[in-house]
Amino acid sequence: MHICFISSEYPLWKSGGVGTFLQTFGRALVNEGHKVSIVGIGNSDYEELNDKGVKIYRLPKSTIPFGKFIFNTISISSKIEKIHKQENIDIVESAELGLAFMRKNPALKYVIRLHGGHHFFAESENRKVHWWQGLKEKLSFKKADGFIAVSNYVKEHTSKFLSFHNKPIEIIYSPINTELFHPNPNQKAQPYNITFVGTICEKKGVRQLIMAMEAIKRKYPEVHLNIFGREWFYKDGRSYTEMLKTKYKEIIENCVTIHGVLPFEQVPEKYCLAQVCVFPSHMETQGLVAQEAMAMQKPVVFSKKGPGPETIKEFETGLLCDPLNINEIAEKISWFFEHEDKALEMGKKARQYVLKTFDIETSLAKNIDFYKSLNKA
Questions:
Q1: How is residue 203 annotated by DSSP?
Q2: At CB < 8 A and 24+ separation, what contacts does 342-348 make?
Q3: Which CATH architecture has domain 2-175+359-376?
Q4: Taking the domains of the chain in order of start, what are their residue ranges?
């Protein structure tokens, strides 16, 4: 099969959960003999890249001062048609909004993978649905021939606001690269090293995690929080990281280091050094960072919101916390420090769970079966 993904996110130039999924999944598809193309918007110049057989096309972004999304979509649609004429495409896959103004080719099947769209996060962040974003999402859903949800939670909560129009939908967890994320017996964890990996923004719970460090520091003076991730900016251009450094100056100077972006291949090394990995997201559709750390047998504190209970069984494969409760975040991290033997046992169970539930071969087979079912319909 030839699957074409619409995405402007990929680890070669921009980190993020969707890009990480595409790289892991795309490489696996290629290894199984399938063709993979990724078409998205880059900067000012056209680029063609090849990542271990995954063909990537980055198109120049629109310079028109209005309607950029529409013109960018038209550009993507045209490129997909050109690729299809050269190498027949079977499936075009996009995130929630990507098909809104797509010119559909009746010979192709179009899939939306629910990574968490505008309606989903509007609900989780308790904000109003923006009319334009909401309209695009509704138009996009009407054009899909099928849907894949990365968790039961995202499926159920998306269905509260958007119709799947009686089209097929299946829950398929995103796979983890367990060849990259595996325990390293030669690398010992640094005592009291807490590690976070993810976008440095409010909805990832970074602020609450930093605030929780004050209580943990009193109990464990040697504790240190290492934060790795890409920067996030407010609409007016202000840096979220600079806000944190200003507002929580004393805590950060005492026990927090914000390292910035980390190349994907270096993430396992940082997890190896961690005694505890913490991801107190306000909301996730599924997320990948918790499972990647679990694959390395690390004690993990994850958010109890969203699909957290789908990912971690409390006190068996990890711990869950209320991401808005600073005391609870501190308590769950401290529990691992206080119960090192149990933390080690939970880490081993966590890896076995990830190998069983987020295995690339199982995920690959389920996705291919779903794609083929659409072509038979």
A1: G
A2: 343/276, 343/299, 344/297, 344/299, 346/299, 346/315, 346/316, 346/317, 346/318, 347/294, 347/297, 347/298, 347/299, 348/297
A3: 3-Layer(aba) Sandwich (3.40)
A4: 2-175+359-376, 193-357
193-357 topology per CATH = Rossmann fold (3.40.50)
How many CA within 13 A on the CB side of residue 187?
14
Sheet with 276-279, edge to edge strand ranges: 256-260, 224-228, 193-197, 276-279, 300-303, 319-321
* HSE-up of residue 326 (Cα within 13 Å, Cβ side): 11
In the structure, what pLDDT confidence band is assigned to residue 3 with cuts at 50, 70 and 90? very high
Query: 2-175+359-376 and 193-357: same fold?
Result: yes
pTM higher than 0.90: no
Chain segment 65-106, per-residue pLDDT in tens: 778 889 999 999 999 999 999 999 999 999 999 999 999 999
What burial letters (b/e) apply to 83-101, b meaning 16+ CB within 10 Å? bbeeeebbbbbbbbbbbbb
Q: How confident is the model at residue 374 (pLDDT cuts 50, 70, 90)?
A: very high
**What SS3 class is residue 112?**
strand
pLDDT by residue (tens digit) across 268-283?
999 999 999 999 999 8
